[in-house]
Amino acid sequence: MIAELLLKITTSVRFHAKEHPMPDPTIVLVHGAFADASGFGGVIAELSSAGLTVVAPPNPLRSLASDAATVAAAVAAIEGPVVLVGHSYGGAVITQASAGLENVTALVYLAAFGLEVGESCASSQQPFPPSMLANTAAPTSQAAVGAAGGPDLYISRGGFRETFCADVPVDVADLMYATQRPLAAAALNENATAAGWKNKPSWFLVSEHDNAIPPDAERFYAQRMGATTEEIDGSHTVFIARPVAVANFIKKAIAG
Q1: How many domains does the chain have?
Q2: For residue 105, is it within any domain?
Q3: Which of 114, 140, 149, 183 supports an S-S bond with 33, CB 3.0-4.6 Å?
Q4: What pLDDT does 65 receive?
Q5: CB 152 within 8 A of CB 139
Q6: pLDDT band for position 148 (50/70/90)?
Q7: How far apart are the C-alpha atoms of 108 and 229, rounded to whole Å?
Q8: Are 253 and 47 in contact (CB under 8 A)?
Q9: Residue 173 structural domain
Q10: pLDDT of 18 higher than 60
Q11: DSSP character for 111?
Q12: Mean pLDDT of 2-14
């Protein structure tokens, strides 16, 4: 009698699970410094063609705390599960933003900063040789509007393509240079106050030829967070040059 009852319960659970399957997560893409969300165009097209919902909210690039709060508010307003993807400085933002978000089921880092509490983007790179960005980023003569103090940072024209996007055509790099969005310098030195990767599964795509963040730093972040890690032959913005490969990596996080 008990065995028959258990069989009925199990059958009922399986039936309702099929009737009400878990929804696919919404993919939230967070861009980093010196760029905007338009760079994700190829990745968005690939994920959307697979039937996935994708959004790419603006990252203000003013301070880690306020940028994380902006992204957290956007994610909290989404119904259902979310896979949160961050590129470059966007990785620091999703690290902090995700800590208090119950609907975030996975974190994906694309050539990004994976900070520990008490670290900044600047301090976390100190054990590693400086990247090319240290020589090609230039401060503005005026203070950064909306930031805690100090200038904005841009990448100089002469060093932009090699530093940021060496694997895209020259005309594309020229457009990216002309439309780059500055990062408030103060944001690079602001310490993280939370780290969502401590209790959320994470995936990390290391760009082997990254000239903006040292690849060894990326490997260190990935190992420290216990991330599922892959490496890709590409620059700091490899998702622009190889959107199919990067979209497939994000799909692995969804499946995981």
Answers
A1: 1
A2: yes
A3: 183
A4: 97
A5: yes
A6: confident
A7: 10
A8: no
A9: 24-255
A10: no
A11: S
A12: 44
Strand 137-143 relative to strand 228-232: parallel, antiparallel, unpaired? unpaired
Give the separation between CA 64 and CA 86, rounded to whole angstroms: 13
Are residues 183 and 140 in contact, defined by beta-carbon separation less than 8 angstroms?
no
Cα–Cα distance for residue pair 64/183, rounded to 1 Å = 11
Examine the pLDDT at 9 and tell me if it is beyond 90.
no
Residue 155, classified by CB atoms within 10 Å of its CB into exposed (0-12), middle (13-18) or buried (19+), is buried
Residue with tokens 């100089």: 156
Examine residue 10 and state whether it is found in any structural domain, yes or no. no
**At 11, which amino acid appears?**
T
| Nearest of 29, 81, 82 to residue 59 by alpha carbon | 29
Beta bridge partners of 55: 28
**Tokens 């994920």 belong to residue:** 47
| Predicted confidence band of residue 256 (pLDDT cuts 50, 70, 90) | confident
Q: Residue 116: which of 232, 228, 223 has the closest Cα?
A: 223
CATH number, residue 39: 3.40.50.1820
Of 115, 107, 119, 108, the closest CA to residue 200 belongs to: 107
**Which stretches of 153-214 are DSSP H helices?**
157-164, 170-178, 185-188
Q: Which helix (H) or strand (E) holds 77?
A: none
pTM of the model: 0.91
